[in-house]
Design a protein that fits this description.
By secondary structure, the chain is mostly beta strands. It has four helices and 13 strands. It starts with 30 loop residues before the first strand and ends in an 8-residue tail after the last helix.
Amino acid sequence: MSLLPLFLLGLTGPTAARAGEALKTPVPGLKFKDCRILKQSTDANGIYIIKVCKEAVRCQSQAYGFVLAARAPKWTVKAWRADRKQWGEISLAEFLKADLLFMNRLSYGSDLGKPNAPSIDRSGPERTLNYTFAPISSAAGSLFSYSDKEDKLQRQAKLQPQLTCLDADLPTQAGAIMRKLYELPPTAGLPLTMTVSNQNGQKQVNLKTDSIEHRQTVSQSEFSPPPHYGKTQLSKRFFVSTSQADFMNEMFDGMVHTK
C-alpha cells in the first residue's frame, strides 16, 4: 500500500512572514513527566518520532523536516522547520479541518467509512483497540503485486483495512492530532498500526510502531518552536523542504508552486 504521492497535489498558500511577531522564550527547566515516546514508520513517508504526554503532544517528521506540537489547555497547533527557521500556528479545530499534511494521506483514505466497534486486546503490556472497516476496492495493481498470469479481477478484489490503537489514559486531542498526521478516520486511542489485507491473506503495512518508551521525562521547551524563528502562515508548502518542493516543481513542469 502506498500513500498518495506528494506530486499529485499542489502546494499553495502564503508563506510571507508576519513582521513584529515573536515567540516567548520558554521557561528553562520545566518538564513533562510520564510521557511516551513512539517511533513510527510509514511505508512511503519515512519515520516519525511522537512524544505524547498528558499535557502535550509533539510529532517530528524525519523525512520532511517539520515538527508540530500542541499543549493544554488550548491545544493550539504550532509547527516549525529548522531549515528555514520558520514557525506558524493554527487552532486545533482548523488544523483538523485543513489539508496541510496532504503528503501523508493514505491512497484509500477517502474510502474508509466509520469503523466498526473495536475489539479489545489485553494480551500485551497495554490494552489496544482493533478497528475494522467495511471492505474497500483496490485500484488495479496499486496495492499488491500480481503476476501477469493472474486474473486482472484479482487486482480489484476487496481489501480489508484494520487499525490498531493504544487505549491509554491520554488526552483525546493527542490522538486526534496523531490521526490527522496520517489522515486516519476518527477513533479512540493513539494509532499504532494500519494495514490492509487481500482475500489471499496478504497484508500490507502502511503504518507501524517500531518502539514505545514509557515513563519518559521531556522538556517543555520541546513543545515550542525556538524563539528566534520567524513567524509565517502555515500552508501545504511549509510541510516540505525547499529542495523537495523544487524537485516536484521541476518534475511536474511548474505544477507545484514553490515560491
